Amino acid sequence: MTRFKISPVGLAAATALTVAAIAGGVMIGRATAPAADVPAAAGRKVLYWYDPMAPGQRFERPGKSPFMDMPLQPKYADEVPAPQAPGVTIDPAQTQSLGMRLAKAQRGALPGGLSATGVIDFNERDVAVVQARAAGFVQRVYGRAPGDVVAAGAPLADILVPDWAGAQDEFLAVRRSGDAALIRASRQRLQLLGMPPSLISAVEHGGRVHNVATVVMPSGGVIRTLSVRNGMTVTAGQTLAEVNGLGRVWLNAAVPEAMAGQVRVGEAATASLAAYPGETLGGRVTAILPQAQAESRTLTVRIELPNAGGRLRPGMFATVRFGGLARPALLVPTETVIRTGRRTLVLLAGPRGTYQPAEIRTGREAGGQTEVLAGLREGEQVVASGQFLIDSEASLSGVAARPIGGASPVRGPAALIEGVGRVEQITAGQVTLSHEAIPALQWPAMTMSFRLTDPHLAHAVRPGEQVTFAFEQTANGPIVRRVQRRPAR
Predict the structure, then answer these.
(1) What does the alpha-carbon distance between residue 62 and residue 71 come to, in Å, rounded to a whole number?
(2) Model confidence over 108-123: pLDDT tens digits?
(3) Is residue 190's pLDDT more than 80?
(4) Cα–Cα distance, 240 to 228 (Å, whole number)
(5) Residues with Cβ < 8 Å from 401, sequence gap 6 or more?
(6) Coil, helix or strand at residue 130
(7) Among 55, 150, 157, 348, which has the minimal tally of Cβ within 10 Å of its Cβ?
(8) d(C-alpha 289, C-alpha 444), whole Å
(9) For residue 202, how many other CB atoms are within 10 A of its CB?
(10) Could you tell me if 485 and 461 are in contact, meaning their C-beta atoms sit under 8 angstroms apart?
(11) Residue 293 has pLDDT above 60, yes or no
């Protein structure tokens, strides 16, 4: 004996038919007259027809349901609920109790300039090296020490050079001969032995030997190194001292790596020192060193400053401000920006008390304003206070943030929905597709017609072909925006 299982839907439908038949005085088993089609209301747009007992199936034309012996019902465009705005909704009374404030993204001039700290250092381009011109013995030093500030021409040491005595005697003998060519050759020999022009002139005019030479400072500055002492022996070319000029000094500023792109070589900079309150010194960026400091993640920016009177001492700290020009930008208050570590967000204020996170890309910050490079449009309102509470609520509710591209992840009326199907029929304005299930709208697999936005789409495919398509769900029904032939597997 075969058993039949009746579904609740079928049982309810059968009961309804039985009651209708009894009420009408009609015997079960007698053929019933076909029910008339339900007419559509005048002036209302019909999206599709459906069976109330199987609402997932949609039909293009009125008629009888293939599931039950009843007419199909129309679905009107004005019955489709409007898409919900993405985000979370907060009662206006609660926003007042939270003290919520809104700010508008607007165009403005972001003040230029960047502040950093720096240290005064020697100008390594202004270094003079003092060397012995010939081998000899140090007879006298003039009490110099590293760190002393000396003037140009200041004596450093007296050196006795034995080899110079014989050459000078020979020069004086040749000079007495009166032969101009020999005198010229003998003078040149003295120069090649390393004698300074002042010493040769003294021998020539004095007529006696000078084999003790005084080594002097070639330029003024501070003695960085000193390696000459009384009584020592020196060789030709030996370094006796190094002198660093103080007329101009370097200011090495530590600029954070994230802001290094705002500094340019040749840019003007100003410095203020605690030693001279109220005074500002001006200079220019001469170099940005190529290596970053791994410990502090900073780049060294070198500024050259004039040092009149030698007041700027290497080792002094200074506050540096780089003078950049103000440039137009899309700005929001810095307090509206939420930094999570992985991305940067603001909370957009929408209509009717809705709020949605939006991902943005930020640039410079100055004067309490943050530059927005992408993710916001001018005129959009963002939450300036209480945004962390709303962001927590949005995270708990699973509300996705609007991406930087601007398209909301919550499907709206302009979002395209993808599908796969087979072309049954296609004309210039309409295509009939037997498509697979569309999970985005919870549609089962069925055959239905779509309007085409562009008549040229009708030439892209032919009946019987497998296609992929994208359509937009509008108040007047689905509209295909894109259709293309599906590659053969």
Answers:
(1) 8
(2) 877 666 788 999 999 9
(3) yes
(4) 5
(5) 343, 345, 356, 357, 358, 359, 409
(6) strand
(7) 55
(8) 65
(9) 15
(10) yes
(11) yes
Question: Is it the case that residue 35 has pLDDT exceeding 70?
Answer: no
Percent of the chain with pLDDT over 70: 78
Write the DSSP assignment of 350-399 as a string of letters. Answer: -GGGEEEEEEEEEEEEETTEEEEEES--TT-EEEEESHHHHHHHHHHHTP
Report the alpha-carbon distance of residue 243 to residue 388 in Å, rounded. Answer: 60
For 227, the token pair is 């390696």
Q: Which two tokens stand for residue 435?
A: 């498509």
DSSP letter at 344? E
Count of residues in the chain: 489
Amino acid in position 406: G
Contact 156, 144 (CB under 8 A): yes
Residue with tokens 């599908």: 419
In this prediction, residue 54 carries a pLDDT of 67
Q: What is the dihedral of CA 350, 353, 358, 363, to 10 degrees?
A: 80
- The residue type found at 415 is A
CA angle, corner 268, sides to 371 and 363, nearest 5?
Answer: 10
Tokens found for residue 189: 């020999």
User: Which pLDDT belongs to residue 325?
Assistant: 58
Spacing of C-alpha 327 from chain mean position: 17
Nearest to 252 by CA among 295, 285, 297, 296: 285
Encoded tokens for 161: 């050079």
Asked whether the beta carbons of 141 and 157 are under 8 A apart, the reply is yes
4, pLDDT greater than 60: no
The label of the residue with tokens 């400072």 reads 217
Q: How far, in Å, CA of 406 to CA of 358, rounded?
A: 8
To 10 degrees, what angle do helices 197-206 and 180-192 make? 140
Q: How far apart are CA 119 and CA 320, in angstroms?
A: 10
pLDDT of 128:
92
CA distance 248 to 270: 15
Average pLDDT value for the chain? 78
C-alpha to C-alpha distance for 118 and 161, rounded to whole angstroms: 47
Structure tokens at 112: 């230029």
Angstrom distances, CA of residue 291 to CA of 264, 276, 294, 398: 16, 31, 9, 44
Separation of alpha carbons 157 and 139, rounded Å: 8
Enumerate residues 6+ apart whose C-beta is below 8 A from 29: none
Closest CA to 158 of 141, 144, 145: 141
Beta pairing partners, 355: 88, 349
Nearest partner of 227 among 97, 312, 131, judged by Cα = 131
pLDDT tens-digit map of 207-247:
888 888 888 898 899 999 999 998 899 998 899 999 999 99
Among candidate residues 350, 465, 475, 474, the one with its CA nearest the CA of residue 416: 474
More confident residue, 80 or 385: 385
